[in-house]
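Appendix B, record 7
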Amino acid sequence: MIKTLVNAFKIKEIRGKLFFTFLMLLVLRIGAQLPIPGTDSSVISSVLSQYSGSFGFFDAMTGGSFSDYSVFALSITPYITSSIIIQLLTIAIPKLEEMQREGEEGRKKLAAGTRYLTVALALIESIAMAIGFGNLGLFGDEYTFWNVLMSVFSMTAGSAAVMWIGEQITEFGVGNGISMVLLFNIVSRIPEDIASLFTKYVSGQYEKGIGYSILGAVVIIAIIVFVVAFVVVLNAGERRIPVQYSQKVVGRRMIGGNSSYIPLKVNTSSVIPVIFASSLMQFPVIIANLFGSSATWTHYLTTSYWFNLDNMQYTIGFIVYVLLIVFFSYFYTSITFNPMEVSNNMKKQGGFIPGIRPGAPTTDYLNKILGYVVFIGAVGLIIVATVPIFFSGVFGADISFGGTSLIIIVGVVLETMKAIESMMVVRNYRGFLAE
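Structure tokens (predicted):
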């Protein structure tokens, strides 16, 4: 990876794209530090300290902008939500599915719809946050209509600006802009979390003896390395189903007869099931918190209460969390991968899986293999998502770069490196053709 970056910086065109990406991300961090006038961010920090399980992951995705209640408080989250909604609607509504198959023109229409939906969601979320946190004292003694309006306008405009930054990176920078924004937001919180862990488990244990400090450092490093390595393996793992294409005569030539494979990723749905499960469980908790309710039932749905040795009864909610991850893993895979369509396409092109007849038997075989693969991927997601929750509950190690964040980080880094390598390959081909 380092070698690829070094070689990329030697190329003027790619170096310019990398520099542009860096500038856009710098603008993103500057905007994240701009507070909304008339608000007291300490109110948000107080709520986060009480309900870190409800808002912690959201705050990590915004790079701390949410806890600071800055102009970019919503960051890229409305766009991510709207993209998922449009993707689901594309599967459910035939007209949108046809639009997607129209090519570039259809994709532009869907992209425009995603932008409009992003602004609408940002408006709804900003209104809910301004009123909810306003009731908790966000505006102090100046809880007026105009202050609420200023807050709503600032957050909605900020979310639209972050969306624009992401699109500019996609067009003129390196990699997928939205993914880069999300990656940068999460990574920006890591130094603070590492410092917190060091203070609590390394320097904080020095009074007990140097051995405790060394042990704390070794355990922290070992856990981080294990989780990162596990996420890399989970993202890279795939089941390759061999496909053989029959030979046929076209004119005087014999074509076909080659072999290929269908790559089924172990983590077919990426981090989506964890986000869906977390959002579904935390939605009623967030609503209850915004209305000032601190009912005991919310503890069963809040990750910060799970695996707490003093109150293990709340860990029952973890079982629901696991079941939701498994359900959404199968659900999301079912709408993004269609075995029947793959089987029909193979049949049209004269392809078949060795030992399996084309048509319905191939569809059944793909469904069977997909079921195994998705289950393995779901178990992997559960392990990655559980590690930070477990250590948070047992040892009180609150960190923002949990398993879900690491899946995003690893996925985006690998995707970006592939994009840089592709640009280098294309440039080499151009140079070869020019000669």
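Remarks on this record: Residues 81 and 118 are 8 Å apart (CA to CA). The first strand starts at residue 238 and ends at 245.
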